[in-house]
Amino acid sequence: MVGVSNGSTAVVECETEAFPEPLRYWERSDGSLLENGDKYRINNTLEKRGYRIRMQLKISRVTPRDFTYRYFCISKNELQTTRGELQLYELDPRLPPPRFTTELNKETIFGIHPPDKVSYEDICGPPIQCPECDKDAIKCSGVSLVDLISHWEVRPFDDNKTYPGYPSRTKGNGITRELFIAKNDKL
């Protein structure tokens, strides 16, 4: 619940956390979709931290009718729709602000909570040592691109040489075509 004086501006906020990226919007309890204009100012990406985003709705020139509605911040993606509910109540500027119990003033969480964080070790278990590798030597590290390129030999195409599995190449139409063969002696 958000307290506001009649004729002033109310600011209500909602924080959502969702993956994949959700569609976020505000709705009123009469089914009206709220849009930016003279009455409402909406910022649905006020603060972004990872998958968490804070949404804000400013209601200007609050009237007694605005107190009759509930306002919903809605976050919707392919997996689920979550709807937070907020309500305005009227503050009398001539009286001190009311004291709320912790029950009325607490944060409410809607929707399904995200799963607990786990480490890769919990999911996959300890890494398995390669049986062919010596623990002190790095034999199974693979071959780098630099290793491959540094051992290439480039030479002109030989008309008399054939390569099994490849069609024969010829010179044709008066245009000389050359083919360069890259050969790696190490692999």
TrEMBL record:
Top-level taxon of origin: Eukaryota
Name of this protein: Ig-like domain-containing protein
Organism: Acanthoscelides obtectus
InterPro entries, per database record: Ig-like_dom_sf, Ig-like_fold
Pfam families: Ig_3
